[in-house]
Amino acid sequence: MESVVEITGLNKFYGRNHVLKNINLRVEKGDVLVICGPSGAGKSTLLRCINRLENFETGTVRVLGKDVKIHTNLIFIRRNTGMVFQHFNLFPHLTVLDNIIIAPIHVKKVAKHEAVEKAKILLQRVGLSEKLMSYPHQLSGGEKQRVAIARALAMDPEIMMFDEPTSALDPEMIKEVLNVMVDLANGGMTMIVVTHEMGFAKQVSNKIAFMDKGEIIEFATKESFFSNPTSQRAREFLSKIL
Description:
Blueprint: E1 3-14, E2 17-28, E3 32-36, H1 43-50, E4 58-63, E5 66-67, H2 74-79, E6 81-84, H3 96-106, H4 112-125, H5 141-153, E7 159-163, H6 171-186, E8 190-194, H7 198-204, E9 207-212, E10 215-221, H8 222-227, H9 232-241
Parallel strand pairs: 3-8, 3-9, 6-7, 7-8
Antiparallel strand pairs: 1-2, 1-4, 4-5, 9-10
Helix pairs in contact: 3-4, 3-5, 4-5, 5-6
């Protein structure tokens, strides 16, 4: 299988705090990888190192064959990796439509009418066609997150990355966001998802990376991880959340 993300010997420090410890990870095209583990394990930091929103001290991260440490590669990498954050990060002064078309027009130089047509298709896909001209303050949390997903998809990414996309949402809004993510996974999108939603992990992931204290303790298929985790720490974690 074609490797789209390859991490070797990654170490990250905040001062003296060693937050990522010798991380080795490979993501192949079509994988849906869920990164899980307790709070403070380093999950979000690892995700942010993949597109170098965070710098790291040692090791290599290659995305779509390109080394993220080489500055000239970053534009290519960020064009081809969609990122959905915990807190939406929509522009509050722009409509939903304008939030979605701004990057394709200014970064990919897509003609405005083409960007608008694609935005309409994407909004229909995430169930928000009627919100085209709304502003972020007029949307629920779940709607904002679905707009954020549509915005990321507007760039035609090879990989979609999600950093705890449901953790800021009210419980009744979580399902509408997860449904969109399930649809993406079923469509063959390569995805890396940091989440505590183990139901989602069971339903659509094919690989699980379990982290604790900055290390990947376990890397396994979802079937193996949920039925027979090899580490005591993973067994403890699953016993508390399942």
